[in-house]
Design a protein that fits this description.
This protein is an alpha/beta fold. Helices cover 39% and strands 14% of the residues. The chain has nine helices and seven strands, in the order βαβαβαβαβαβααααβ. It has a seven-stranded parallel sheet, sandwiched between helices.
Length: 255
């Protein structure tokens, strides 16, 4: 039986640990027939080690999405490995420590700028670096954490995710003519490396225990990975500029 990504070539960022959503997206993509290539920063060796647990071997490229030289060299490296791309997964986010954890009112602009560059502007940077590899169209999928709300401890990552969501809509607007779809998965909280960098993360995550209509497992990134794979496939051919919630339904519930 063929998979829903048979023949697809996918670039995936953000594979750090087995608990990463991106790792599960990569695993599922391979199981569904895709050829993949991974990027990593700042420690490609960490990603290479984790990549050994994927069903098939895959190349890992060093890519700092804030480095213009890295972005400029990406097309040649990917073309040499896969010939082109049909999809891109943006699973990148970072904020300095003083931009998280309750000090929102005192965070200096330099830290805010870093969070915005790495977490939001990089969606545009990565997409444009990969665009020449998708002359026949493709699917760009990013990861957000619902930016409609002000979450405890999340601080400047909230505005950064709001910027990411707006960037996704504008990419959808400008790239639709080239049949490039741009969508986001809004995942519920997971015990990933990114989550563990947020002071007081358990306060935020505990909301899911009482308000999520579907039971939510902090240790299970696979549902979000499945959402990514679905959006990479041809089963959403006319969906772009969208945010698909994989959060147990909490986004729809008031009190």
């Amino acid at each position: 039986m063929s998979g829903i990504l048979d023949g697809k070539r996918i670039l995936i960022t953000g594979v750090l640990l087995e608990s990463s959503i991106a790792f599960h997206a990569a695993k599922l993509a391979q199981e569904e027939g895709a050829e993949i290539i991974l990027t990593a920063f700042p420690r490609p060796t960490l990603t290479e080690r984790v990549a050994k647990k994927l069903p098939k071997p895959t190349k890992v490229l060093e890519l700092d999405v804030t480095n213009a030289e890295h972005l400029a060299g990406l097309e040649e490296q990917v073309r040499a490995e896969l010939g082109g791309l049909d999809g891109v997964v943006h699973s990148i986010g970072f904020a300095p420590a003083d931009a998280l954890g309750g000090g929102f009112l005192d965070t200096p602009f330099e830290s805010v700028a870093t969070a915005m560059h790495v977490s939001a502007f990089s969606l545009k940077s990565l997409t444009m670096a990969c665009k020449p590899l998708m002359p026949g169209g493709g699917s760009v999928v990013g990861l957000t954490f619902d930016a409609q709300f002000a979450w405890p401890q999340y601080d400047w990552m909230g505005p950064a995710k709001a910027a990411l969501e707006a960037t996704n809509r504008y990419l959808a607007r400008y790239l639709g003519a080239e049949d490039i779809r741009c969508n986001l998965i809004s995942a519920g909280p997971l015990g990933s490396m990114a989550a563990k960098s947020i002071p007081g993360f358990s306060d935020l995550a505990s909301v899911w225990d009482t308000r999520s209509p579907l039971s939510w497992d902090l240790t299970d990134p696979e549902p979000a990975g499945r959402g990514i794979v679905a959006l990479l496939s041809d089963w959403f051919p006319k969906t772009t500029g969208e945010i698909i919630h994989v959060d147990g339904g909490l986004h729809a519930i008031g009190a």
